Amino acid sequence: MSKYNYFRQGFLCPDEEQRLLTNQFYDNAFEIYARFDDWKDDDRFYFIPLYMRMTYSVHGMVLEMAPDPVWMGSFVRCSLEHPELFQITCPRCKRKVFPYHCVGSPLSGRVDLEYGCKCGKKGYVVVSGWQIRADALRDQLEIDKARNFEFMKDNLGGDHTADIDELMSFLWKGGIPQCR
Ligand SMILES: [Zn+2]
């Protein structure tokens, strides 16, 4: 048994802006992963809230890998630190890629790792091991709670996080130039 309760505790329906932000993460995930070291220390980026709806419904109950919102930094760090669970080899160009979304069934254990590669290939890879991935992500979210608490404390009443547009322009302007 897991120490986590997978049953959905509440229900947060993302608004249009939150949905858009999450879609922008999906679209830019390859670069966001590749440049993790450039943005991971900036709380404004690390705690961008993603509404990923990693849910599974059965008999009127909803189970989820992790409750929304999931912090972008936690999600990306978790994947990078557990390549044995999350790394995928692009079938077209053989690059190593990480998923921008995971969804699956805790009953069968099936997980779809959805990815978009730099070469343009998009798709998903089916693996087994729902719970081990859910636990890895929840462990990372637990670890990051203390850091988030400090961040929130320093930003009381403000709009804390940046959005993906700001992150991308930060990466292209302020980050380390990349060879294209
Ligand atoms: Zn590829």
Describe the structure.
- The protein has 180 residues and is of the alpha+beta class.
- It has a domain of 116 residues.
- Helix content is 42%, strand content 19%.
- It has seven helices and nine strands.
- The strands form four sheets. The protein has a three-stranded antiparallel beta sheet.
- The chain is globular, with a radius of gyration of 16 Å.
- The model has no long low-confidence stretch (mean pLDDT 91).
- The site of zinc ion has 7 residues, from loops.
- Zinc ion binds next to loops.
List keywords for this structure.
two-stranded antiparallel ribbon; 180 residues; 9 strands; alpha+beta
Mean pLDDT: 91
Question: What order do the SSEs take from the amino end to the carboxyl end, as H and E?
Answer: HHHEEEEHHEEEEEHH
Tally of extended strands?
A: 9
Instruction: Specify the helix fraction band.
Output: 40-55%
Question: What can be said about this structure in brief?
Answer:
By secondary structure, the protein is of the alpha+beta class. Helix content is 42%, strand content 19%.
Topology:
Elements: H1 16-34, H2 36-39, H3 43-46, E1 49-50, E2 55-58, E3 61-64, E4 70-71, H4 72-81, H5 83-86, E5 88-89, E6 96-97, E7 101-104, E8 110-116, E9 122-128, H6 130-154, H7 164-173
Helix pairs in contact: 4-6
The structure holds zinc ion (ZN).
